[in-house]
Design brief:
The chain has an eight-stranded mixed sheet, covered by helices on one side. It contains one helix and eight strands; from the N terminus they run E-E-H-E-E-E-E-E-E. Helices cover 15% and strands 50% of the residues. The relative contact order is 0.27. The chain has 86 residues and is an alpha+beta fold. The chain is globular. It binds ligand V3L. The site of ligand V3L has 14 residues, from strand 5 and strand 6.
Length: 86
């Protein structure tokens, strides 16, 4: 699963990398052509929509973030799953 791509979710002024397990799951679904599905992330169920490229809390539509698939090395990444780099 290391073809140079990673998955990111939106933070306040930059992007967070998904944890490895979730990132692998996203990549698998993406390659399988899945569009909308649910994932358990950090104890919460999120709906992932790969057409609009968003994640959203299943029980709270207001908790919505953009997501992105990009090369591993992008400049505006803050850290992984809430853990800051540096
Ligand atoms: N993976 C891990 N934690 C997540 C994810 C995810 N895919 N989605 C949401 N959370 P919400 P700044 C983020 C966390 O969307 O300063 C960052 O990881 C989310 O964490 O309402 O704004 C940082 O830890 C938030 O704490 O469901 O860039 C933190 O925000 C919580 O779930 C601050 O980042 C609620 O998010």
């Amino acid at each position: 699963f290391d073809d140079g791509y990673q998955w990111f979710y939106e933070g306040r002024n930059g992007w967070w990398q998904y944890d490895d397990r979730t990132s692998n799951e996203l990549e698998k679904k993406y390659k399988n052509g899945d569009k909308v599905f649910e994932l358990l992330i950090a104890g919460f169920l999120y709906v992932i929509d790969l057409e609009s490229m968003r994640q959203c809390r299943r029980n709270d539509q207001t908790r919505r973030r953009r997501i992105r698939r990009d090369m591993r090395t992008v400049p505006d990444v803050k850290g992984i799953a809430g853990l800051r780099f540096g």
